[in-house]
Specification:
With 444 residues, this protein is of the alpha/beta class. Strands 1, 2, 8, 9, 10, 11, 17 and 18 form an 8-stranded mixed beta sheet that branches. The chain has an 8-stranded mixed beta sheet with strand order 5-6-4-13-14-15-12-16, sandwiched between helices. The protein has 2 domains: 220 residues, FAD/NAD(P)-binding domain (3-Layer(bba) Sandwich); 151 residues, D-Amino Acid Oxidase, subunit A, domain 2 (D-Amino Acid Oxidase, Chain A, domain 2). α1 packs parallel to α5 and α2 crosses α3. Bound molecules: flavin-adenine dinucleotide.
């Protein structure tokens, strides 16, 4: 029984994102549906960054994997996100992480986050993937003066691991990035950039096929049984037998198939709109001068970037139903937020509006590892809306763990997080969280 409205789990429905309108231009990926009985060393469930990166790195280690994806490759968050390739994967700030895990493990986590961005860059170079890259670095702007301090803490942690980051005041941000009615200074991290998420995902898929791995799209796993020491994953038109399974389904986790993971993910909807292309005069009204992606410090985050054809992409969170009416309401909310933050863009129509799941965990950090009661099943989930780089890294870590070449995971991401209490009531818990976030955001 899905948590959200059933339309969000309709794999036959193409994603209505702006990126999807460009899919044909990114070239084909060989990924026929699974037909008949097949076998592999490792079965990967989920054809997003995590599953594809796992399969790609397994192939490089000489281990045969097959990927089963319920929809077209990249149907999940990996084909429809905002394209921030940036440092992050947790809802906890640096100070909170240090308080829980200590200085060393927090720094180890940050090193992994930085390495993740570098990994995407390196994959693109090694495999000649055209990421449609934009901007150098990533901005985070404080939506009110009281939030500037945490940007400095974040910058200090990055400095400790050798990553240049600087905090600028409101006028400094305006002179480097854009004018915004709601900003009190900003952090610029030198590591990170914007990319086209679907172009990256399909490029990674092609690189994985080139390494000899078979991908099967439109091949949803509907049943999973154990036969002797093997797993058998069943789809509508075939079955895949494997010694090991990687569950790489993030916010679309099929809980009925993996009871050990049930209740450990909180899917949260993230929503995006894009405007029509803006004219140079319109861009000048907000003094737009950056291609780098930017987000703010609100709990109900605003994240935005100017796309190559000068459309504003603007994202945020807030719907806890997933119904079609909820989607329309979020489109109105985001359109209103654009006008509030950027008065010079008020009244400019939005051409595309879509949403998808990010995944949170109860400990507010990602989860990577193997099931305690069955180490032949690996998982990675819960990157809290920051998975372009980090889920690529997580997939590589899972591959290394299977190949026996992995080091220790940073403590914040190691192993299973606790279950949410009363998992069937998670939507109500989410509604409470969203209401709290709204109060926090509106408080002075
Ligand atoms: C609107 C939005 C904006 C975002 N913006 C950003 C951003 O700017 N930067 C950033 O870093 N992160 C962003 N994220 C988060 C990021 O996209 C995700 O963290 C990342 O894509 C997760 O990758 P994944 O491979 O783990 O999961 P997904 O890409 O979600 O892939 C999981 C796949 O599993 C498949 N699946 C599920 N059940 C089955 C089954 N039974 N059988 C077979 N397949 C199955 C699904 O169809 C899906 O394709 C955003 C997410 C959303 C939704």
């Amino acid at each position: 029984m899905p948590l959200f409205h059933p339309t969000l789990y309709d794999w036959s429905k193409p994603v209505d994102s702006f990126w999807e309108t460009q899919r044909a231009s990114f070239g084909d990926v060989e990924a026929p549906p699974l037909h008949g009985d097949a076998s592999a060393d490792v079965a990967v469930v989920g054809g997003g960054y995590c599953g594809l990166s796992a399969a790609y790195h397994l192939a490089r280690a000489g281990i045969e994997a097959r990927v089963l994806e319920a929809g077209p490759i990249g149907w999940g968050a990996s084909g429809r996100n905002g394209g921030f390739c940036s440092v992050g994967a947790s809802f906890l700030g640096a100070a909170e992480l240090k308080g829980i895990y200590g200085e060393d493990e927090t720094l180890a986590f940050y090193r992994a986050l930085v390495e993740a961005v570098q990994l995407v860059d390196a994959l693109a170079k090694d495999e000649t993937i055209d990421l449609k890259r934009q901007g150098d670095g990533v901005w985070t702007f404080a939506h009110k003066p009281g939030r500037v301090g945490e940007l400095q803490t974040h910058a200090d942690v990055l400095a400790r691991i050798g990553v240049p980051a600087r905090v600028v005041d409101a006028s400094g941000f305006e002179s480097e990035a854009f004018a915004c009615a709601e900003q009190a200074g900003a952090l610029h991290e030198s590591v990170g950039f914007a990319l086209n998420p679907l172009a990256y995902c399909l490029g990674l898929a092609r690189a994985t096929v080139k390494r000899g791995t078979k991908l099967h799209q439109n091949s949803r796993v509907t049943a999973w049984r154990r036969e002797d020491a093997q797993h058998v994953l069943v789809t509508a038109s075939g079955s895949l037998r494997a010694k090991r399974v990687i569950v790489a389904t993030n916010g679309w986790l099929p809980e009925e198939l993996v009871p050990e993971l049930a209740g450990r993910v909180m899917p949260v909807l993230s929503n995006i709109v894009t405007t029509r292309p803006l004219s140079d005069d319109e861009l000048a009204r907000q003094g737009w001068r950056t291609q780098a992606p930017a987000s703010n410090t609100r709990a109900l985050l605003a994240y935005l970037r100017m796309l190559p054809d000068k459309r504003l992409m603007f994202g945020g969170r807030g719907d806890a139903t997933g119904s079609p009416a909820g989607g329309l309401a979020m489109r109105r909310v985001l359109t209103r937020r654009i006008a509030e933050m950027f008065p010079g863009f008020a009244g400019i129509e939005t051409t595309h509006s879509w949403r998808g799941f990010i995944a949170a965990t109860r400990r507010l950090t990602p989860a990577i590892g193997e099931l305690p009661n069955d180490p032949t099943v690996s998982f990675a989930f819960g990157c809290h809306g920051n998975g372009v780089a980090f889920m690529t890294w997580a997939g590589r870590e899972l591959a290394k763990r299977i190949a026996g070449t992995a080091g220790a995971l940073p403590a914040p991401v190691n192993g299973l997080p606790p279950r949410f209490p009363f998992p069937s009531l998670r939507l109500w818990q989410l509604r409470v969280m969203l209401a709290r976030a709204w109060v926090e955001d509106t408080a002075l």
